Automatic annotation (TrEMBL):
Family according to the record: Belongs to the nucleotide-sugar transporter family. SLC35B subfamily.
Membrane topology field: Multi-pass membrane protein
Record carries keyword Membrane: yes
Superkingdom of origin: Eukaryota
This protein's name: Adenosine 3'-phospho 5'-phosphosulfate transporter 1
GO molecular function, one term: 3'-phosphoadenosine 5'-phosphosulfate transmembrane transporter activity
Parts forming coiled coils: none
First-listed, main subcellular location of the protein, grouped into a coarse class: membrane
Gene: LOC105362842
């Protein structure tokens, strides 16, 4: 009887929190208009409204999970052997395949990372080169497609032209294909046992979604030189976040090297751009850019910590993180009714469908390299590679502008 009572309590917690947050979202929307007006609004502080709406959608998933987490901790729900789908789901989310999980975290020892035979310097160098070029090709192409989708006008074949405005939908479709590909890989490629409780993925999944959103929003409020300065100095916050999350110890020369790399990248990138007419940097833009830097640094370091502590594979990590990201973004899009805007746009402008498919393919390929690079070389090495990618893309953009003087590729430098 105890199991059934616990299942009922869990269902009521989910129902209450979902209804409360869904109602809150619609109350906010009733004061500011329909979903398309919210998406296209570009006033200085409209991003706060969009952030509240997005986070309300995310909280519709996260709040029930948090309430269940607190209930499981104070009750003996997981100590009772339940055979239904709810006990199994709760067990996977909060206990994993370990023996203690969150019930006794003080005595829980995560499964150590799977040991691999030692590799030679030549093998490491070859693997790093492979990751470097894989990331460069994937994200250079992805950046071009991203800029194309967010800036070009699509033609419906009848003379009507329009821009696509909902950046959260692009984040969603990228995550959908990544889940499908990684799930297929899990089915056909033998993986080590998965022991990590699923709820641990929600932290980096949420930070990844929010950092992507902040990055898009920041482009509306900051000048191009400010973007360049922030992206070129991302190594430093990554190292600081690594010290906070994983207690990683860096030598003094490593901090000095990071600072010198950041300064060198900033000088090169600023010296290679014509930024006389880039517009002013606003206070809102600085906040969004700072949030992007912090969240993006947290994401890579949290994933690195999971790799090191639990021995999770890159495919397992990719599938779980993107699954939660899909759940978060889909819930937010549904609550804001903005998903209908995106689907209508796809039906009206067929060329948009092809661009969505291409950007999803290259985003998924890039994610495979991201997780593989972080699992083998750590978060700092990954950020250095991505910083070099900014320089490479800037060089290509500069060459493109020289060949086509009327074009403007400055906003391609997205991560």
């Amino acid at each position: 009887m105890g199991n059934y009572a616990g299942d009922i309590i869990i269902c009521l917690l989910v129902l209450f929190s979902v209804c409360f947050l869904y109602g809150t979202t619609h109350v906010i929307k009733s004061f500011i208009g329909n979903g398309e007006n919210i998406i296209s609004s570009h006033t200085y502080y409209s991003w706060i409204i969009r952030f509240c709406l997005n986070f309300s959608g995310y909280a519709t998933v996260l709040l029930p999970g948090y309430l269940i987490y607190k209930y499981v901790r104070v009750s003996k729900y997981l100590q009772r052997k339940g055979k239904g789908c709810i006990p199994r789901l709760i067990h996977s989310c909060f206990l994993g395949s370990g023996e203690q999980g969150l019930l006794d975290s003080s005595h829980y020892s995560p499964t150590p990372a799977t040991s691999h035979p030692p590799s030679t310097f030549f093998q490491d160098a070859l693997l790093l080169t492979h990751c470097f070029f894989g990331l460069q090709v994937s994200y250079l192409t992805w950046g071009y497609l991203q800029e194309k989708i967010m800036t070009q006008e699509y033609d419906d074949g009848q003379g009507n032209r329009s821009n696509f405005k909902d950046s959260q939908f692009i984040v969603f479709i990228n995550r959908v294909l990544a889940v499908v590909i990684s799930a297929v890989c899990l089915l056909i490629i033998r993986q080590p046992p998965h022991t990590i409780p699923l709820y641990k993925y929600t932290f980096c999944s949420l930070s990844n979604v929010l950092s992507s959103w902040c990055q898009y929003e920041a482009l509306k409020y900051v000048s191009f030189p400010t973007q360049v300065l922030a992206k070129a100095s991302k190594i430093i916050p990554v190292m600081i976040m690594g010290k906070i999350i994983s207690r990683t110890k860096y030598e003094y020369y490593e901090y000095v090297t990071a600072v010198l790399i950041s300064i060198g990248m900033m000088m090169f990138m600023l010296g290679s751009t014509d930024h006389e007419n880039d517009g002013a940097t606003t206070f809102s833009g600085v906040i969004l850019l700072g949030a992007y830097m912090m969240l993006d640094s947290f994401t890579s370091n949290w994933q690195n910590a999971l790799f090191n502590e639990y021995g999770v594979t890159s495919i397992q990590m990719m599938c779980a993180v993107n699954l939660f990201s899909c759940l978060l973004t889909a819930t937010s899009l549904f609550q804001q009714s903005s998903i209908m805007y995106s689907l209508t746009f796809m039906a009206t402008y067929p060329n948009f469908i092809l661009d969505c498919l291409l950007i999803s393919i290259f985003s998924t390929t890039g994610q495979l390299y991201i997780f593989y690079t972080i699992s083998n070389f750590g978060a700092v090495t990954f950020i250095i590679i991505m910083t070099v990618r900014q320089v490479t893309y800037l060089s290509i953009s500069t060459l493109f502008i020289v060949l086509r003087p009327n074009s403007d590729n400055r906003n391609c430098l997205l991560k």
